[in-house]
């Protein structure tokens, strides 16, 4: 199940009051990118893409910024409301390698729950779409993938699986472009302008 578009927008508004930050604008832009791409792909629902894109980071409403915590909190929050399709994307959006992300034994309850979910989940087109849109959208607009990868690395540092994740994202780009019959960049407003902007990387306060 899914919330309506208006419900999703209201959820983000409330989340922004609970935990203000550029992640709200980022989430809105992920939704826009997902909708615009899905509308060009046969069999995909633009409204569904818009909703799950807007709410992919909803776990950040509680003020937690690291990957496992916000993934877990978002999944719990969405499931409590019966929004299983949102809950799924809350889980999958940060793990482009899916089960191959987990070449270690998680130590926390959150990480164990995430691993159990991901290793039993086969990525579908909405999972892939939000993963790539997460890499296209900033709080100030849309940027080419390479720009976004540098921005995230400047904020969090380089991790072992980053490059593998980038490779998967580029494969997903080609996958969607083949179906769209155009570049994904063609449907992202003002990407040429915003890609050239160089704001300092956002440094969230860790909790």
Describe the structure.
The protein is an all-alpha fold. The protein has ten helices and two strands; from the N terminus they run αααααααββααα. A two-stranded antiparallel ribbon has the order 1-2. Helix 1 runs parallel beside helix 3 (46-54), helix 2 (23-38) runs antiparallel to helix 3 (46-54) and helix 7 (125-134) packs across helix 9. The two termini are 31 Å apart. 36% of the residues are buried. The mean pLDDT is 92.
Q: What are the SSEs and their pairings?
A:
Blueprint: H1 5-18, H2 23-38, H3 46-54, H4 67-80, H5 84-92, H6 109-119, H7 125-134, E1 137-138, E2 141-142, H8 145-156, H9 162-180, H10 191-195
Antiparallel strand pairs: 1-2
Helix pairs in contact: 1-3, 2-3, 2-7, 4-5, 4-6, 7-9
Q: Give the overall silhouette.
A: globular
- Number of E-type strands: 2
Query: What is the rounded Rg?
Result: 16 Å
> Which ranges are low-confidence, i.e. pLDDT below 50, for 5 or more consecutive residues?
none
Structural class: mainly alpha
Tell me which oligomeric state these chains represent: single chain
Share of residues in strands: under 5%
What is the first-to-last residue Cα distance?
A: 31 Å
Total helical elements = 10
* N-to-C series of helices and strands: HHHHHHHEEHHH
Strand order of the largest sheet: 1-2
Task: Note the main sheet.
Answer: 2 strands, antiparallel
Estimated helix fraction: 55-70%
Mean pLDDT: 92
What keywords describe this structure?
mainly alpha; 207 residues
Short description:
Helix content is 57%, strand content 2%. It has helices at 5-18, 23-38, 46-54, 67-80, 84-92, 109-119, 125-134, 145-156, 162-180, 191-195, and strands at residues 137-138, 141-142.
